[in-house]
Amino acid sequence: MKQLYREIMTGIGLAVLIFLIYQGFDVTPLLVIGTMFFVLRFLIEGRGDGKKFESLRANAASGLAIPSVSFEDIGGQEVAKRELKEALNLMRNEERARKLGIRPLKGILLAGPPGTGKTLMAKAAANYTDSVFLSAVGSEFVEMYAGVGASRVRKLFKKAYQDADKASKSSAIIFIDEIDVLGAKRGRNSGHMEYDQTLNELLTQIDGIRVGQKIKVLVVGATNRVDMLDPALMRPGRFDRIVKVDLPDKNGRLHILKIHARNKPLAQDVDLEAVAKETFGFSGAHLESVLNEAAIYALRKNRSEISASDLRDAIEKVMLGEKLDRHPSLEEKRRIAYHEIGHAILGEVNRAGSVSSITISSRGNALGYMRLSPADDQYLYTKDELAGRIQVCLAGAVAEELVFGQRSTGAVNDIEQATEIAKKMILSGLSDLGIVSKDIPQTIIHEGITKIIKEQEQLVKEILLKFKKEMEMLASHLLENEKISGSIFRQMLKAAV
């Protein structure tokens, strides 16, 4: 009916326009005004209310309203899953919760680094509660036109109730990713009140969720910047629970690797536990990428199984990027080789068996690199351990100086890392300055960092001078083969000693 009405009005408008032209009127102002009107309407309808959330429509007839992801498909987040399930049980057992006087939760915030599975957790929550699932991104609600963002919020909540009703479900979950864009602290954008209006509408809609409604709605937000959220959004009665979705530990990484390896043929030499050990600090997304890249390496080599070497190469690619076609001169290669061997020797001196691989092949921004495998997940460091890490960082530049008489720009990143570790030592009270305030003057911090770096640099020189012959032998082997595994490096170092 609407379409027919529009066609009739368009026809009448064109007829009037032709009549005016025929009578000799100047219709240029009318054309300009009409064009501006249609452009404005297109922007508001096309970019505003009309089309943004079409992708959110749950197709109840085809059974796609409930996500297929379950909590069993998510690895490495046992604590987060347990806490989230506890909150969701209030929705599943509403009658029991009501008898105990428990107020149902209106919002749950999933907080954690990117790639840790926050979206998967939200989908699994919908599956667990048999709820219709709608998702949106915080940036979709923010526009330059006043009132558009607030209108989108209203439309999203209205859609949640409608889709749940169509699918004959008693509950719906609204998932808002990057909620820090939508729910940022008010007053930061003084010249653009649209942000604040949109947040106000979200608060109003959350407050509008009542006990005993036919359709229960739960808002699940995800962010890696909790500090940016408005306090009004985080108060009890809105986002009642903050579930920390953190980087997985070694057991969690092993669980994730096993999940992603289900459909991948692994060779006999593959040890997923060893891979989990070497990938400290990796998120679930990183680990999925490691297995995917390993499968690509196997495909390149026309093999039907993924080998341990494929996984080692995949870890290095995810960490540093793809191999590059850079061709340094022979003199530069020699310098790179000694630089990386210097790192490796200090790494081995500080912790035996820590060197995983050494190479002079370029990857990403690195002309060469030495990779250390952590002994185990570690969250606390002593003064000696931090000093050892500084020594490993400085060893490359010191090795260059001992062999070539001067250093190069290749140690820029190493120096930055060493400086950051030294600063951490000072602020943690592990330097000669003792316990310091966080407001300590920068000049004192600078002097403290300089002193720590110089002390460790002298120790590194003394250690590398003892291994000068071994450095020459290992550097020659590295120049010939471009890569040395940790086990071969240790065998050669032990044989030389």
Molecular structure report:
This protein is an alpha/beta fold and 497 residues long. The protein has 3 domains: 54-244, P-loop containing nucleotide triphosphate hydrolases (Rossmann fold, 3-Layer(aba) Sandwich); 250-320, Helicase, Ruva Protein, domain 3, CATH 1.10.8; 330-496, Methane Monooxygenase Hydroxylase, Chain G, domain 1 (Up-down Bundle). Helix content is 55%, strand content 9%. It is built from 19 helices and 8 strands. The strands form 2 sheets. The protein has a 5-stranded parallel beta sheet with strand order 2-3-4-1-5, sandwiched between helices. Strands 7-6-8 form a 3-stranded antiparallel beta sheet. β2, α6 (148-166) and β3 (171-177) form a beta-alpha-beta unit. α3 (78-92) packs parallel to α5, α6 packs parallel to α8 and α10 crosses α11 (272-278). The longest helix has 25 residues, at 442-466.
What attributes characterize this protein structure?
497 residues; alpha/beta; Rossmann fold; Helicase, Ruva Protein, domain 3; Methane Monooxygenase Hydroxylase, Chain G, domain 1; five-stranded parallel beta sheet; three-stranded antiparallel beta sheet; 19 helices
